[in-house]
Amino acid sequence: MAEPLQRKVVLAGVMLAIFLAAMESTVVATAMPTVIASLGGIRIYSWVFSAFLLTSTISMPLWGRLSDLLGRRPTYLAGVAIFLLGSGLSGLSQSMAQLIAFRALQGLGAGSLITIGMTLVGELYGLEQRARKQGYISGVWGVASLVGPAIGGFLADHVSWRWVFYINLPFGALSALAIAWGLSEPVARRRAGSIDFLGAGLFAAGIASLLVGLVEGGRVASWLTPGVLGPLAVGALFLVLFVLVERRTAEPLIPLDLFKNPMVRAGAATGFLSGMAMFGAISFIPLYIQAVVGATATQAGFVLTPFVLGWVAFSILSARLVLRVGYRGVVVAGMASLTLSFLLLSEWDQGLTRLGAVRDVIFAGFGMGMVMVPMLIAVQSAVPKRDLGIATSTVQFFRTIGGAVGVAVMGAAMAHRLQTELQALLAASAPGTRLAAQVRELVAQPDLVVNPATRETLAPALVAHVRLALADALHGVFVVGLVVCVVALASSFLVPSGRARDLARAEEAASTPGS
Prior knowledge:
By secondary structure, the chain is mainly α. It is built from 18 helices and no strands.
């Protein structure tokens, strides 16, 4: 039977919005040097990324639950409007502080684009069609990650860095029009007054504090500082209060009974652990290629290209494969591939070739493709439609939180190891020499180690030592990633077994009134 035109239009709108949200971080990262030259504020520029991550992560479960309570269409359109408002204001920014504030607003809206978009696909399509569509959407995510840097670089170099944000406006408006025209649904049966505002406030405060602590932890060599432990402790306190409130609320923000479902638990666990590994790989592989191997930024990007292409290809393949062989087998195979990739990464040294790097990272792409889409399909098929939004957003949320934790833990491992190596180099340097002075400067500001301009001013012997120190530090990062992958591989065997017919029965039962 031909697919209705309206459903096709909605799918196109969802894919366009997800493309914009997925591209946002990479396109902005490429343009940031030009932004700093225009606005200044280099000491706080990292919060341009952190603010977006903070609000988009916090808002995912909020948008998911609101869409369950108020309806998909109005909630989605509100999220797109906030995203576009934040984009326009970011382009108008006159200072780095303004840009950070408007990026936070943009992130608040971005949290809805992915969460509700994936939910709409789960609601509009049956199991077999949904598997194909979710695979395509995951492919869109990968393509956006691939082309984002090129688009950001082109706009910053040949137009204006402000168009990195303005470009969202016409395409975001087109997405909103597609959803507004193509999506019709019954009026929401629940009142806005049933929203759990206290739980939402506690959740937002807890996750915000947690992410602030993690972001700071990723920058320093030791987590035993007030700037790290303070926010983490505050975050833990608010989250404990959140759980206590949710247990007593008639309409909780995140129904805790949801986690009695073994598929939801499995989706949360695999999302968290695979997110740790995935974001770790994306964050530190280019650094190794540039700072240790000595390649350019473009060449480092070339190494990540097979990772993204493998992710896209296996997302589409695994979405169909799960209907034939079941989701446990596909997820276990994906985690095994991811583990193999980090095992190979942990063997990297200064003699690494770009071809060898491509070979090793492509297994990570295969693994992510075989984990993300099958688990999302399985979770959406295992919950009642009334909880489809919060279940989908929960899987996305745990993956994002896992990424934040992974980057922070791996970043702290790298910072600690690098600081130790540089301190040892300083102790071995003859006092009063130019070499000792340069090492002392690197110990005080380890970030200079990865700055190409700084490295050009260093003595050749010191550059060799610095490369070795970075190689050792990043080896520690990949070992941490390998440990995470081993734990993830073990946990993947806890994913409930089942094939397409089991998923179909579960979905049919979940959609039955009163289920």
